[in-house]
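Reviewer comment 2.1 asked that we show a complete input and output for one of the modelled complexes. We chose the tetrahydrodeoxyuridine case, as it is the one discussed in the main text.
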Amino acid sequence: MSGLEDLFAAARAAQQRAYAPYSHFPVGAALRADSGSVFSGCNVENAAYPLGVCAETAAIAAMIAAGERRIAEILVVGPGRKKIAPCGACRQRIAEFGAGAIVHLADDQGAVETFSLADLLPRAFGPESLKA
Ligand code: THU
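Response of the prediction step:
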C-alpha cells in the first residue's frame, strides 16, 4: 500500500464516524486533490432511505468546499475484508472532477486493489460531452 497510508488512515477515520444505522455498512472515502491535499467523507444515511449520501460524495463535497476542483486519486474502504467499489452514481461524480483519477479499493486491513476510473466507468459522459 506504499504511498497510500495517508489516504487509508483518513478513509478509516471517516468510516469510524459514518452514520449508517439502517444498512450497518459504514464506508469511508479519502481523496487526494491535485494540490496534494487530502479530503475525506463517510456515508450519511437517512430515515427516508433514498436521501442517504455515499462516502465518496461526501469526500467530493469536502474537496469542493475547500476550493479544489481536481481528484488525483481516491480510496474507498468498507467494512471487513471485502473490497467495495464505488456505486455507479459515485463513479459519475468522481468523473466530473477526475476523469483520469486512480481509484483504490481497500479492505479494513489495508489491502488495496487499484483501478483507473476509466476502467470502472468506460465511455463516460462528462463535461467535455456538453461541448459542441
Ligand atoms: N455506500 C457508500 O458510501 N459508498 C459505496 O461505494 C457503496 C455504498 C454506502 C451507501 C449506504 O449508506 C451503504 O453504503 C449501503 O449501501
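DSSP finds four helices and five strands in the chain. We note this here for comparison with the apo prediction described in Section 3.2.
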